[in-house]
Design brief:
233 residues, alpha/beta, Rossmann fold, four-stranded antiparallel β-sheet, 10 strands, binds adenosine-5'-triphosphate, binds magnesium ion
Length: 233
């Protein structure tokens, strides 16, 4: 078996807001394999987004260890974490977070430019065009986000998230703002990308029919993560 993309052990997260500290993640352990889609379900406020934040190195856990693509996040400083995200991670949110003044092509190209500012624009453009073609948007390259439908905007966001060939895609309710058919099409695209590129996907969703299509389902409940399917042996 190839090395897992994510190995997290004993992860705890405490956050303070105002009064008493809150225990948000409780001894969370998680392994994500390459090419596999893992869904996380669970009630609102249970800690799903918090889990995504610690795996992305955007929130520092108060205890435990996390490694992604063989690289330990423990003790990395902000600069190293930013580099880690650029190298290994794609993130997709419910609201698409595209830059409104940039076209679809420019939104995707920007990720490549930031990753390697010295690279020739011609090369960057060709790669961004391919990424948009992969999500079926080769006929919308010059459109601003305001001129795209919600589903199209999320497809641009997906192209942007994977154009750098990340090992891990973290998606937080990526279909939450889309109608069901459009949502299912986005998910199908994500799953195909996972297989083709041997990328691990962590998909947070409230939609049981989407979660059921994942290879595995985990459930978050009051900060504790457990296995829903397949049933643990
Ligand atoms: N910055 C913060 N400071 C303090 N508490 C926070 C902070 N961010 C989140 N929380 C708390 O942590 C808990 C888990 O939040 P989280 O956003 O991870 O839930 P979630 O499972 O993603 O919920 P939803 O399904 O509604 O998105 C909540 O009780 C929330 O109030
Ligand atoms: Mg959330």
């Amino acid at each position: 078996m190839t090395q897992p993309v994510v190995v997290a052990q004993g992860v705890n997260l405490h956050l303070k807001s105002g009064g008493a500290p809150l225990h948000i993640l409780k001894d969370v352990g998680l392994t994500l394999a390459a090419g596999e889609v893992t869904a996380v379900v669970g009630p609102s406020g249970s800690g799903k987004t918090s889990l995504l934040m610690v795996l992305a190195g955007l929130e520092r856990p108060s205890g435990g260890s996390i490694s992604v693509a063989g690289e330990s996040l423990d003790g990395l400083n902000e600069d190293k974490l930013a580099l880690f995200r650029r190298r290994h991670l794609g993130i997709l949110f419910q609201s698409f977070h595209l830059i409104p003044s940039l076209t679809a092509l420019e939104n995707v190209a920007l990720t490549l430019e930031i990753a390697n500012p010295a690279r020739a624009w011609k090369e960057i453009r060709a790669e961004a065009e391919r990424a948009l073609a992969d999500v079926g948007l080769d006929n919308r390259l010059g459109h601003l986000p305001s001129a795209l439908s919600g589903g199209e905007q999320q497809r641009v966001a997906l192209a942007r998230a994977v154009v750098g060939k990340p090992r891990l895609l973290l998606a937080d309710e990526p279909t939450g703002n889309l109608d069901q058919d459009t949502g299912h099409r986005i998910i199908a695209l994500m799953f195909a990308l996972a297989r083709e590129r041997d990328m691990a996907i962590l998909l947070i969703t409230h939609d049981p029919s989407l979660a059921a299509r994942a290879d595995r389902q985990l459930r978050m409940d009051q900060g504790r993560l457990s296995i829903l399917t397949p049933e643990p042996a």
